[in-house]
Known about the structure:
The protein is of the alpha+beta class. It has nine helices and ten strands. α6 packs across α8. Mean pLDDT is 78; it is low at 177-189 and 259-281.
Amino acid sequence: MRTVLFPLYALGPYLPDFLTPPESEGGITAALGGILRMPRRDVRAELRLLNRVSPLPSWALRLEQGAERREFTELIRRYHEVAVAPYTERVASGIVGHRAPLARALLTRGVEGLLSSLGPRLRWHPPVLEVDYRTDRDLHLPGRGMRIVPTYFSWGTPVALANADLPPVLSCPLNHPTVLEETLPAELVPLGARVLRCVADGLTTGELTQVVGVSLSAASRHASVLRDAGLTTSRQTGPTVLHTLNPLGAALLRQARGVGRENGDAPPALPVREGHRTVRP
């Protein structure tokens, strides 16, 4: 896989647009279908451009042909199963934690607030969005919208599609915090379970004190316990800290609510386990 995929996804100033089709938002199967449906002339032109920037092996230039492209997409699928799929929950958690404060900025301060909250690699100076980029480039929208996509596996600068005629897309790397995955301590139950249910809607520490009816220090403590247990994500947004549910916490809530409805009882207490481990992505 290394000798086949790395030449096409080379680090450098250019990545072929056909490798990141818009269908990618529908998942890996839809993305691979988009690669297969790309017109041969477009694939040929982009491969030749990549070859000028980063020389390709001879087989890569044949990817404009259907059979070779099908074999290539099958290799991508197999790589995804091994290197990406097992970490789906962690990826989703990072994206949810990144998206929640942006959604709040949009709701409270509008588009201006959203564009001002994209940093640190993006700076909003109306009417221009300045981006730390690999090359010196201007992208003019002339009335078109732009899709901003958080990317988990990119650790460099934001990246836009090379073809300025395509619908504008800007991929922005997440800010990867250190993740502490720790099992639930006994003090989490029962108040911590209530805090977890409230955080499902995304709340600041101050809002938690009002909704749950506890002091600020108690709300902060329980929010920290949930975050350290790997159930929530906390992100600093100005003077406040916004707490959001991550996929593991959501799955636990769904399980608890489902059991409660089936038995006609209140949701069960959250499980308690011992031990802890630190994981750095």
